[in-house]
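Quick look at the format.
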Amino acid sequence: MQGDRSRTGGLTPGRPWANWSRAVSVRPQFTGSPRSVDEVVSAVAFARERGLPVKAIGAGHSFTAIAVAPGVQLELSALSGIIEADASTGRVRLGAGTHLHELPALLRPLGLALENMGDIDRQTIAGATSTGTHGTGATFGGLATQIVALTLVTADGSVLTVSEYENAELLPAARLGLGALGVIVDVTIQCVPAFLLQAVEKPEPFDAVVDTFEQRASAVDHFEFYWFPHTTTALTKTNTRLPSDASPKPLGRIRRWVDDSVMANGVFALTCGLGRMAPAAVPGINSVAARLTGDRSFTDWSPDVFVTERSVRFREMEYALPRAAVPEALRQIRALIRTRGWRISFPIEVRVAAADENWLSTAYGRESGYIAVHRYFREDHSEYFRAVEQIMRAHDGRPHWGKLHYRDAPELSALYPRFADFTAVRDRLDPERVFGNPYLGRVLGP
């Protein structure tokens, strides 16, 4: 099998795989690392002929089982880098396996950047857009809104281009398709001229930040905050966009190392471990963490401000709410933690995004605020997440597709006005569910 790549797409007997958070694992029957689109087509044909499902994986940063491939698992790192670029229009075509952290080196020579980013850049471009990855900013959409075209290998082996000019009716479905419509082999991103961000990070009173959340979020380019449970302090982050000819004032190498490597990861890992062994110590630990982090200002190129290093493993659930519902939901979560007597070491993260038109986007048709809750990966997250989810449900919350949640297709179909349109596209492109798995069966239906 190894010697016949043209027939099998280079598939080999499967190897054990686990996602980053170690919440999900599988041993596929076959694993492949296709080197070309033709090899992806061959791998899909091989799987279809044997009745095996196919899933492409990215970097494994989804917390859900969305990438679990019990049949054929395709790893697309060989399909990476710039395929073509037009600096004059800002459009860049990238291999699906390109990691977000590779983009600054690829785009900077062209004078370009992503319009917006999240705070983690380990994902692949196809994995990130397929699960609805987003950053923060009241006038900025998620990563999928930046896609103007993509290429899919569909269940029958067709290579399908979806763009403003070809199969345009599929674009709102395919940009954020959960891996349910085919294997994405490339995407074309609408980039913007490279820019700097002026970052101001500081601790502020939690109640004051929550009370003014909507005004704060709308008044600046990018606003977010973190709240360590059991404290009265919110750590706010305000980023203002500046042109490329502005003067950078980056953090010094030592300051960044101390803040991001030592404090945000090294010390935090120790405190999470301590909190797990001695839960009663968590409130005190969180109070110290809130005092020692998040008080700095600097100006740097956008990727160096948007992205932060995250090496402490955790589990996460994130919900998108109508923006106006965020303050009340946060107060209810704070009351829930107090009432249950839980000791939660990980901070709660709050962000915003503009409404968009992608059918399965958590921000479809409404300006959205996001609340993300986390637990250290060695702690049981289920009781906390399930209870918080009840609050999110009461506020018409939509769960992030790549983060833990407990919703199913009948519930989700009521939250998305174009849900039936998406499943109709799925029925058209993958009637036999070649790209299905148990997670997709749960959230999209059989």
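Next, a different chain entirely:
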Amino acid sequence: MASNEELRKRKTYLQIAGFACSNCHQTSREDGTRTLLRCTRCRMSYYCSKSCQKADFSFHKQFCAAIEELSNLEEVWYSCNDKESEWNKRKIYHMQLLAAALDRDLTSYESNAWLNQPKCHVCFRTSRDSESRSALIPCTSCHVVFCCSNEHWEQHRSKHKSLCQTYQIMVQYHGTSETLWAPEEWDESLIYPPLPKDWSSYLKWRKAPQFNQLDALCRVITNSLSLPLTILSALERFYPRSQLRSFDELVIHLIGAGKYEVSALMSFEEIMHILPNIRTLQLILIGIELTSKTMGVSLQCCPRCTKADRKRIYSLHPISYHEYSASDDFITPQIVVGFNIGLNEEFWKPSVEFLIEKELPCIFTSYSKDEASQDAKMLKNLGAKIIVGAKENKWRSTMPLVEPQETDKFYYNNYYRTLLKGKRE
């Protein structure tokens, strides 16, 4: 799991593109300057002032020195021959060299910055690849898509025109704080289940502020609330209404958990608000990205839940789910959830076999239809009884995220879902 400092410092797309300060996030437009100051060593970090550069130095210096070392190795800056596949191979090669220079794996912050570094969207050259080291030319609207020349912009402009608005939404999101809004209203009318038909109906039902569903703030909210609502939509498929309403304690396993689940922990209180009979909600996060074991930590609840003596507890287990299932810490859950974990990888096979054998209700989400189909295929091969197979999730995040390994491709958290329980007959 990334540290709090790393999460706070993780670069936005505007910072990576050189249009926002790497320390305070202020854009060049907000600062009233035409250009920001660029770090002369790595040439990848930008600052609105010397004081911001100094404030960021302790966090930035190791990665900066590694980039400088890489920049001095002429042989590793071989031509990509205008091919995206070669550009991707070179990026990964460079990340391996950077990790060697740092004598450790790259952090999420560092990987994100390198994978999304500016390049020409036609020939895949960076400013470092140009003999003159000339700057790339940005789109004047989104500021995060570049070409190396006016001629290449002429080639790319028509394609970018159809995607520029999506890039602008993405940029706007990354300039917005991670709002974890969970309405304090309880479901007094006992409407759930089922959930409403879509996000608009849900926000109205939950007496949300007048969010515009297309605004960046609302998209940020769906990115975090997508987790509890995806779980609630699965619970209504696995349990009858009477049983859901009778739960005094709800135990949820979040497998393959990382920073996405940890940063959204507060939003899980929405499960308690929609199921107000729950006295204790226990969230058990299991995943190798987590850094330290933590047991039984209480999370603050809203005033009403606090007054009713309701509790929300989380635990962290930095191991594989298969290891956790064999440990003394294992607690049988009402549901097992894996958000965007790439279930079809061989790593997950022993964990899935355990889940099938124990007949635990499971929901897994994926970024795309293709990934979801691969997950479903793997589950079928293992004999799982699939309840919902690779179907679009209406509670997916509405916030587009750029795919760093494919030019002009976007993905969404929890876009597709697959539900299973037990063995196929």
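Residues 150-174 form the longest helix (25 residues).

See the schema section for token definitions.
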